[in-house]
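Ticket opened by: R.M.
Priority: normal
Category: complex prediction / small molecule

The reporter submitted a protein together with S-adenosylmethionine and asked that the result be attached to this ticket for the collaborator who will pick it up next week. Submitted input follows.
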Amino acid sequence: MEGYVEKIRELRESGDWQGIVQLYENGFTDEKLLWFQPDSNGLNFLRKNLAELGVQGVSSIGCGSGLLEWLINSSTGLPVIGYEIDLGWWQSKHSPPKFLKEISYIDPTTLPQLNPQFALLFCYFNDSKVFEAYLDSFRGDCVILIGPDEKNKIRYCDPEPFQLKDEERWCIHAAWRSKFLEAIVIYRRSTTTVCPQ
Ligand SMILES: C[S@@+](CC[C@H](N)C(=O)[O-])C[C@H]1O[C@@H](n2cnc3c(N)ncnc32)[C@H](O)[C@@H]1O
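Result attached by the on-call engineer:
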């Protein structure tokens, strides 16, 4: 596994995001780097749908190493800002490598100011109370949830990707499921009481 981490670090340094995606497509996973298993179809799905919605960037809450965020930035061209807690851990010698330069380390008791032109992303987040607080304060029109799909009985996160499907305030704009039983669901703010089919 250590060899793969080094390889991913090198690919990151040379800007070869497709090379990293290929490793994941071939089955590589390591939760220390990224819980999600990205592939090129999923990144294309994000690029196409975020452009369709006119999103100007992505704010990712609980970005971890920032690997997914760097892949999104590289594949879509959109600016991506990551937010994490516990700077002490992330600065320690035991922490995983960091792949995104734009990570803001925040106090978990306060919410950062988020750009409403940016989509709000949660990938394998695991705190529904914090998620609700972000959603209540968010003024933007696009939320992205990533995690295991409905068929995946092994993995878990909170919120799960389809969590907002029955919420009045949000409509599913597009959903994508991967061969690894994971899903990316893009929501847009609802302007009517019923979401168009
Ligand atoms: C399961 S990990 C997922 C990390 C990354 N998104 C991924 O998919 O690899 C959840 C992350 O959320 C972060 N987190 C928890 N509470 C948070 C908060 N209030 N604000 C920002 N990040 C938080 C944790 O530190 C952890 O890195």
